[in-house]
């Protein structure tokens, strides 16, 4: 039986995860869900971020579904590094998968881009790069302060995520991978990325490739987002580019993600890209689509392809009927999508 650890987290996290669970209830009958209270509330109450015992329990699950972590009451970095990044790093979730599609019924802020025309996935490296914490500070707080933050890139880590991107591209219609870095300036890391990309590409003659510097890629995501299929890039570039990709495809409320450990040596984690949004928390107006789509990615990862497709199709149908300007009711969206999934799976 599939065991899923659920971390609703803070703010709208609890609201959107409740909807994702309604959908899982119909898409994956018989799974067990164990809720873990982690995030700002636990930290403020107990000082705990992610106890080792909880880490071990999480490790025993098939996957993790996470809502959102963070609150203004917690100093920046505590939960990001101690919880979110710890899970990604310690569970070796090296593929940070971030699909973006412009669905019928949604609108892009870009003129001349029509629904159906944008369909891309960013394969963001999830365990290295500038997120590795390789740096330090001298003379902190003084006028002579010096801070360094190094980007850690290994051949092993680079090759495995690039290979994953090619495997995904191979399963898609356009079969195209764009490698994004900044090799004209970041010669060491960029050189490794580019060389590794070219070597792996030689093993995939059926997949077309190109390379873009990250500044150009950021521009092209806005000027011609239709041109992208699969993008593979490092941790920080991927963080930035996926916010742009979300923005041009209807906003962060629709952006799903998976922090994937493809070999399944540890659980993968699925989470909406958006945060805890304290400003709208508790009002029942958060869009649960990103959380629901993240549950869809979870299903796909665990090999439930038919259920995953039903979730995608149900979300597409829900979005197609949206009229712009009409307010979102979180629980109603969850009910409707779950009902559609039930109908599709018969
Ligand atoms: C994201 C977030 C995180 C990241 C933060 C909260 C650590 O921005 O998931 O994109 O930078 O990866
Ligand atoms: Mn981000």
Mean pLDDT: 97
Tally of helical segments? 11
Which structural class is indicated by helix and strand composition? alpha/beta
What characteristic shape results from the CA principal axes? globular
Roughly how much helix do the residues carry, as a percent range? 40-55%
Strand content: 15-25%
Contiguous low-pLDDT stretches (5 residues minimum) are: none
Strand order of the largest sheet: 2-1-3-12-11-4-5-10-8-9
What summary fits the major beta sheet?
10 strands, mixed
The beta-strand count equals 12
The Cα radius of gyration reads 20 Å
Structure described in brief:
The protein is α/β, with parallel strands linked by helices. It contains eleven helices and twelve strands. The relative contact order is 0.18.
Can you tag this structure with a few keywords?
11 helices; alpha/beta; binds manganese (II) ion; 10-stranded mixed beta sheet; 346 residues; two-stranded antiparallel sheet; binds 3-isopropylmalic acid; ICDH/IPMDH
Notes on the protein architecture:
It is built from eleven helices and twelve strands. It has helices spanning 12-27, 40-46, 52-59, 78-90, 155-170, 187-201, 214-223, 235-247, 289-301, 305-320, 330-345, and strands at residues 3-9, 32-35, 63-68, 95-101, 119-125, 129-138, 146-152, 176-181, 208-213, 230-233, 256-260, 268-272. It has a ten-stranded mixed beta sheet with strand order 2-1-3-12-11-4-5-10-8-9, sandwiched between helices. Helix 1 runs parallel beside helix 11 (330-345), helix 9 packs antiparallel against helix 10 and helix 10 packs across helix 11 (330-345). The structure holds 3-isopropylmalic acid and manganese (II) ion (MN). Residues 80, 84-85, 239, 273 line the site of 3-isopropylmalic acid. Pfam families: Iso_dh.
């Amino acid at each position: 039986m599939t065991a899923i650890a659920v971390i609703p987290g803070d703010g709208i996290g609890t609201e959107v995860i409740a909807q994702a669970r309604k959908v899982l209830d119909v898409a994956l009958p018989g799974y067990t869900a164990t809720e873990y209270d982690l995030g700002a509330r636990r930290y403020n109450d107990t000082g705990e971020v992610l106890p080792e015992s909880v880490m071990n329990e999480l490790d025993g699950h098939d996957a993790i579904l996470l809502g959102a972590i963070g609150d203004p009451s917690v100093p920046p970095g505590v939960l990001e590094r101690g919880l979110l990044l710890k899970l990604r790093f310690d569970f070796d979730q090296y593929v940070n998968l971030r699909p973006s599609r412009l669905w019928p019924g949604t609108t892009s802020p870009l003129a001349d881009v029509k629904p159906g025309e944008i369909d891309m996935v960013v394969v963001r490296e999830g365990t290295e790069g500038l997120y590795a914490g390789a740096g330090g500070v001298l003379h902190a707080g003084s006028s002579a302060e010096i801070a360094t933050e190094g980007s850690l890139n290994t051949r092993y880590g680079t090759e495995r995520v690039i290979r994953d991107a090619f495997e995904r591209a191979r399963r898609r219609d356009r079969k195209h991978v764009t490698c994004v870095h900044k090799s004209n300036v970041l010669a060491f890391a960029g050189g490794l990325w580019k060389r590794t990309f070219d070597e792996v590409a030689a093993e995939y003659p059926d997949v077309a490739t190109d390379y873009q510097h990250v500044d150009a890629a950021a521009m092209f995501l806005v000027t011609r987002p239709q041109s992208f299929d699969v993008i593979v890039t490092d941790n920080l570039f991927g963080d930035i580019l996926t916010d742009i990709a979300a923005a041009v495809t209807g906003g962060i409320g629709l952006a799903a993600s998976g922090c994937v450990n493809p070999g399944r040596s540890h659980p993968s984690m699925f989470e909406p890209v958006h945060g805890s949004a304290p400003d709208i928390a508790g009002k029942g107006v958060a869009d649960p689509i990103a959380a629901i789509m993240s549950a869809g990615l979870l299903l796909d990862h665990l090999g439930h392809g038919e259920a995953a497709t039903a979730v995608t199709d149900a979300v597409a149908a829900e979005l197609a009927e949206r009229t712009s300007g009409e307010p979102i009711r979180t629980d109603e969206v969850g009910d409707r999508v779950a009902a559609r999934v039930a109908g599709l799976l018969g």
